[in-house]
């Protein structure tokens, strides 16, 4: 991802410096007789390049991202060094980068990396699990933080689809809190409506709270 973002940023910079708009765009501009409109359009395109480049530079902090994250794949043992892991820790787990324990753990694990890098019958997370099964909390926390990063925004997109089902054209007067409560039940409970009903009816404390007027007050 980092590599692709850097490619995108460089591509925007190259297009900006060359004033590149694309062949089809140039063909369409030839059809316009108004020189002022053409200049305004080109200026707006250059502004778009500049804004996009500045956005990547400001919000993604590409210069501060680790230059190499291939160490996580366990393919090249030489990449698994303290400086590289410390660079990733500064970005994801700053508290780890501020202590010396990470250096000690990397040194202790140097003998394990070559054998595990050649193990092809285990998945990547299983190999890291073997490495961190001993008392290596810093490496475990760093690797876990990286594996926890979503590979796509599918989870976020699913929230919108679930919300649309609950907030339909026929049920468009629900409060936001009600829709939120429905989504929490759908996502967090693996029980059917009948099972939830049976569970609630057998819980006297829950029944009292359901029948109480407290839920209608602040």
TrEMBL record:
Domain HAT C-terminal dimerisation spans what residues? 132-183
Q: Which GO terms describe its molecular function?
A: protein dimerization activity
The UniProt entry, under Pfam families, shows: Dimer_Tnp_hAT (PF05699)
Look up the domain of life of the source. Eukaryota
Q: What is this protein called?
A: HAT C-terminal dimerisation domain-containing protein
